[in-house]
Amino acid sequence: MIRDARVLRAGFVPREVEHRDAEVNHLSSVLEPITNGEPADTAIVTGPSGVGKTCVSKFVTERLREEVLDVEATYVNCWRNYSRFRTLYQILDDIGATIDIHRQSTPHDELIDRLQQYDGPRTVVILDEVDQLEDPSLIYDLHSMEQFAVICIANKEEELFSRVDDRLVSRLRSSEHVRMDKYHNEQLYDILSARTKWGLENGVITDKQLYQIADAAAGDARLAIGMLRSAASTADRENHEEITNDILLDAAEDARAQIKQKSLDSLTPHQRVVYDIVRDHGPLGPSEIHDRYTEAVDDPRTKRTVRTYLSKMAQYNLLEAEGTSRDREYSLVDSAATSPIQ
DNA sequence: GTTCCACAGGAAAATATGGAGG
DNA sequence: CCTCCATATTTTCCTGTGGAAC
User: Which of A53, A243, A292, A333 is 20 to 30 Å from A46 at the Cα level?
Assistant: First the structure.
């Protein structure tokens, strides 16, 4: 059933990127100066989830490293490393400059100094989910160091710009922008088809089924590949020769549930109680949510904290906020809104 | 209109957590 | 075990906004 599980895993960077030639070339041209040993400009990559932002960025830097000898590359997920310290540490760690850094003995600016003094090969720094960074001034610091070529990945450029200060906005506006849109169903089919060819035995899934997945994933390649992976692993576990329509049906739901579960798992117990309240009692305003929450737990947090929870969960796409002021209500995001497999 | 009040979300102070070194 | 220190989370205090009641 499964020939090579790697190609179905999240974060896999294929040998050839389908349907992103323009974006690949665009980003390559931004990094082009590095091939002559010159500093490269900052690039910004934007687009909704599952359009291949991370994939294209990694692909381009990997190809650059094939061409040029003296280039390093580092990838930081700013969602997981959202503080200035963590992000810097991650970068230094990747370029091998963390020896003798200890949290206690190393003041903050020491990390920046260390980066500035770094005189190894030029380094491409990919900052993924950069809009999650709590202190965006880090972008400015990196931007001003010639040694580093920065690729910023974000969902929406407005959200990125609204959080950084003016001098950085004007600099970033002039830097190269790679915008990506959702895949069309045909393109998703091609992607799935390529993964199937490398990852699965022949004939375990039909073209029609691949189109069904493409249709259900609504332009999101990560979701589509997740569905394919889930279907393949179920079929494999249950010793089927091929992927049946029943398996596919479950896999589609399973892939969505997995993505949601991942966010849900990152919530604290208190946040989870708040989430459950909104889930069970429909659209509610912050006051009523807090009242019910106070009833439900032993040591309730304050209203302000619960408001922070709510906006965090809205960011994670677990909840939806409607209204801007007194009329605000929170409700569960309707995951059934995306079309299921039929 | 005007007033009122719940809300959003920033800033900063206060408190809890966690990990290293004794 | 405990202490210390940086970091993480929570609380307190706050300003600005806009819907709702008057």
Answer: A333
